[in-house]
Amino acid sequence: MEIFGIPHQAFLGQLLLGLVNGAFYALLSLGLAVIFGLLGIVNFAHGALYMLGAFAAWIMLDKFGINYWFALVLAPLTVGLLGVVIERLFLKRLYKLDPLYGLLLTFGLALIAEGIFRELYGVSGQTYNVPELLSGATNLGFMVLPNYRAWVVLVSLAVCLGTWYLIERTRLGAYLRAGTENASLVQAFGINVPLMVTLTYGAGAALAGLAGVLAAPIIQVNPLMGSNLIIVVFAVVVIGGMGSIMGSILTGLGLGIVEGLTRVFYPEASSIVVFVIMVIVLMLRPAGLFGKEA
After folding, report:
1. What CATH code is carried by the domain that includes residue 56?
2. 267 within a domain of the structure (yes/no)
3. pTM, to two decimals
4. Assigned domain for 294 exists
5. How many domains, the chain?
6. pLDDT tens, position by position, 145-173
7. Is residue 258 part of a domain?
């Protein structure tokens, strides 16, 4: 049986692998969208925070014997705490300035983090084994799907939808959105807006750290893993609409699938298809597919 002239096993296999990549795109772009949508910061350090999450999991296992399941909680918390420090020491001084200053600062921090880890560990990469509970694969008939990749998709979807619900459908999310639009009014009700801002950046950083932990058993943990992915993730955020939570989730998943199918029909274009789509979307709708027009 063939689909568009392609054996159905290859077609459906690439569809599922594209969904796995899309899950990473969605989770990473979600953190970017939260930080930009609520704080107005173009966080170029997001790729470095993703890399730090993966290295935190690897160091916990290699140096302290902390397994994957504990690292899945501890590593994002560690990266989130680092995000809190970054916001308190640096970013809080830039909120009243042009967003370009925040972009340059976070880009500089990303280069510093990458340089430090390249000096400590080189660029060859470290291996992080799949946890025993998620080892093996499931035969779906048309392909053999590794259990760990299925786990990544499920966790990413759960975290993305949970974050969207928290920000868009709860009182805490309403406070966050109101605090970024009219901080003085919200503070008049006794709400600590600066603390909310700090915790929001920390939560966005923790999402990047979580993506890093999930990625560690799939790809080699190395200092360049963040910089190799962050440009694609920024393209996903731009296509979905800067600051749109649901836009980032849907666009990340969709573009991962499109990229996977492109590998079937036209492999040479798989590395640029996301950017081609970004150019087309910006020409037709500059605010992005789900963004609000100015």
Report:
1. 1.10.3470
2. yes
3. 0.93
4. no
5. 1
6. 889 999 999 999 999 999 999 988 998 88
7. yes
At 203-224, the pLDDT tens digits run: 999 999 999 999 999 988 999 9
Structural domain for 55, as ranges: 2-284
DSSP character string of 130-156: PPGGG-SEEE-SS-EEEHHHHHHHHHH
pLDDT score at 110: 95
Structural domain includes residue 247: yes
